Amino acid sequence: MILVALAAGAFVAAEWDFSALVEPELRAAALARMLAWAQTFAFPDLSGEFLRHCWALTLQTLSAATLGTALAVVAGFVLAMGSSRAVCVGEEDARGWRRNFPLRSPAAALCSLCRLVQDVLRAVPDFVWAVILVAMIGLGPLTGALALALNITGILAKVYSELWDSVEERDYEQVRALGVGRLNTFFYGIRPLAARSVQSFTLMRAECAIRNAAVIGAVGGGGLGADIWYQIQFGAWGKVTTLMIFTLALTLTADLAANFIRRQLRSDPNHPCAAKLRGTTGKLLPAYLGTGFVLGVVFWSLWFMGWGDNAPPGQQSRNYLQPALMLVTGESWRNLAFFERLLQPDFDLAALGWGGTHRSVELFADYGPLEFWKPAAWVAWDAQLDKWFVWRVIKSASVPLALAIVGTLVGVVGAIILTYAHSLAFQIEPSRFTGETPHLAVRAVRLVQLVLARFTGLVSRGVPEVMWAFLFIAFFGPGLLAGTIAIAIHSLGVLVRVFSETVDNIPYRRFEQSFAGSRLNCFGYVAAPICWRDWMTYSFFQFESNLRAGVVLGIVGVGGLGFFFTFNFEWFRFEKAGTYLLMIIALTVVTDRISRLLKLSRVGS
Amino acid sequence: MKKSVFLLLVACFIFAGCQKKEDSAESAATDRRPAKLILTAIPDDNAENMREYFGLIAAQIEQVTGIPCEYVHVDNYAASVTALATGRAHLAWFGAVTTAQAYMQMRDALEVVAARDIDKEFIAYFIANADLNLEPIDNLAELAQLAQGQGWTFTFGSKSSTSSHLMPRSFFAEQSGKAPEAVFRTVAFSGSHDVVLQKVANGEFHLGALGQPPYDRAGEEIRARAPIVYTTPKFTNYSLSARADLGADLIGEIRSVLLNLHETPEGRQILDYLKAGKFVDADMSEWLGYVDLIESGVDIGG
């Protein structure tokens, strides 16, 4: 019911333009462009020079993204300790509504403050952080990496703190009962219980960071994202294909590396293939291997950015780490005053008649409040309120909201359908619970299905939503339609992976008991209900990230909140930009608090 | 334990505070030559081209002044203004709007070094997809009339561009009495001049606006697919600006590099890319009109 209402609201509130699908002329043009793309797409630009160029960009992206993520993991961990109620406030004995009141104790106030900080870090688009950092440490890849770090810190801190909060209180009761302090309760009670989820989320974010690292180029750092951005706009499909292959290869490598680390750090004693008898070395080695690998990659990134052959094409390489020293000088912090006006948002109160003589909004000029049942009254009120700047700001939020709601819904439905073909349990190993011995050809067909599904998933999540948006803007023209398709496709890719992971994590004996002949029925009636809650949790996370993506897509041409924000920001009208920024932050805070109230994430069950 | 951490923090803050004061004393006396010059530019063309040719300019400056000079490419107009205004870059190639924006942030700390000859009488083009078969027109009011009810789409370049946004928009509003948003079905910003040409040529947009040099630089074939329908009146555009704290001597040296560019073969190569005959002397006063225009709160669409 709520979903239907939300979807309906999304279609009513924002201006949808379906003419690219409905009008035959425009549809034909869009189709022709898609065909042209598909044709040129098949012939990537494989000249030696361009390949070298791509390789340099790949290394730049990898090092900047790794550094950004590494910093974010550390900062996010500390921030999350502050913003997790279980760690920072710890009121296991308190009950009732007062647990949600932010000013009940100093610790609770600190907790709310940390949550606000992480929301701001997350809500402010990374390119804005990048421009602010330019004032502090100048131009270069490090600026991009730090901007990325600030943004990811916000995301990780939210996820970590939510995971820690969702650990059942009675699970660490024993530690707490010993009378240790909050920090010890956290380190010996809460953290180990949530470690697995924290680890897999960190690796997932690292992967996202690597492919989303377009911001590095915006401030003089090069990188794959910025180049694809440019080449898609320019319609150089041959080059786009090559760059996309490199991006996909990078994503795939990151994917494999993440799986490798996960395998090393988490050995599952219940898996049928697990070797049970190993010596101490055998048991400890994987953990050292995994940690060593991570440290190796981080050190390589540091080395590369500082002393490697790291220049953007056609330039001398130099030590890009040096600007970090500027952070300890007073001057770079004083430069922040340049953005001071962002903190003085324009509320245009004069239009409402406060603090100014010129009042323009006469809300009840034509219709009194008692005439609320007349549709014309609402139209008139809206027209009056439109003269108030803040009202226009609020209305502009309908675009990212509509994008996120419709995009996520489509993505979730698509992902659920694709999960069946994507799941190892149902395509490769069903004999473990069905008892059948399928014919070789049947197995081959299933393998093909699995490979196709995995490939679809990989491509649709390996290409960031911004790039999808560019592609569909090129086909359908700028607008909600292109943005929604982009978000839906990207969400599908991300979700199908985590969805099928939850399916594959179900012990086969649970299928065995209820298997009634058809794999599809087993999927629909057994697997889906078991995983449903996890799926909804992931979907809500995806919705939240799509909401932010909706703001970013606004920047690149979909319109709405993001567009107006960047417009004012780039014109240095910081007061107005500040108001839009406040709206972006408000959206993030509201979704975050809802997800916390719903207690969507669970650990250990 | 807690107390010592607190004391440590306080000590840190005091230390930072002291350092602040030292720094400001130092920066007041920065009339000496910097150890390194950073040149940046607004991204109005593709990165490869800009790195190549602005790299050449940087090399010329380095040769004459003897100070290492590096061109840093950015993909964002606001980032280049911020970098110059906060001293993270020393020289910047700005459009008229960005020059005015930088002036509004920096006031007397900004000095215009030079401009191209074409910048004093710059023109922008309105182009249309060849399939529309539009005849060239003399007045944008005509265009507004033709577009009425056609559902045409329109693209500007970057939001803070002069010749691909502000001037075409203000000429359109002036002549037709309407905002472009009121006439066209979609009004978009595709980010850069060359992208405008590309998108109009391949039919993603029916019409677009861009500056003269990027259009003239483009190939015959692509121009045929997006012919000019209207040429705007003349206006002032690009400048090479510097931070005034570089010192009059150094700025003078850099100016001499630019003004003599047409006398060397490399210089002519750069000028050929910039579509100009030579660089000429210029003064901030020539851009003050833009400052007034922006400060007057002109409708810029956002």
Q: Overview of this structure, please?
A:
Chain B: This is Phosphate/phosphite/phosphonate ABC transporter substrate-binding protein. Chain B: It comes from Geoalkalibacter halelectricus. Chain B: InterPro entries: PhnD. Chain B: Keywords: Signal. Chain B: Belongs to the phosphate/phosphite/phosphonate binding protein family. The complex is a heterodimer of chains A (605) and B (302). In chain A, helix 12 (224-234) runs parallel beside helix 22 (465-476), helix 23 (480-505) packs antiparallel against helix 25 and helix 25 packs antiparallel against helix 27. The mean pLDDT of chain A is 80. Chain A is globular. Helix content of chain A is 72%, strand content 0%. Chain A is an all-alpha fold and 605 residues long. Chain B is α/β, with parallel strands linked by helices and 302 residues long. The longest helix of chain B has 27 residues, at 2-28. The interface between A and B is large, with 52 and 59 residues.
Query: So what's the overall shape of chain A?
Result: globular
Identify the quaternary structure here. Answer: heterodimer
How would you characterize the largest beta sheet of chain A? none
Low-confidence runs of at least 5 consecutive residues of chain B? 10-30
Number of strands of chain B: 11
- Pair with the biggest interface: A-B, 52 and 59 residues
Number of helices of chain A: 27
Percentage of β-strand residues of chain A: under 5%
**Whole-Å distance between the termini of chain A?**
28 Å
Distance between the termini of chain B: 54 Å
Could you say which structural class the secondary elements and strand pairing of chain B correspond to?
alpha/beta
Helicity range of chain A: over 70%
As a whole number of angstroms, the C-alpha radius of gyration of chain B is 22 Å
List the total number of helices of chain B.
13
Organism (chain B): Geoalkalibacter halelectricus
Keywords (chain B): Signal
Pfam family, one (chain B): Phosphonate-bd
InterPro entries (chain B): PhnD (IPR005770)
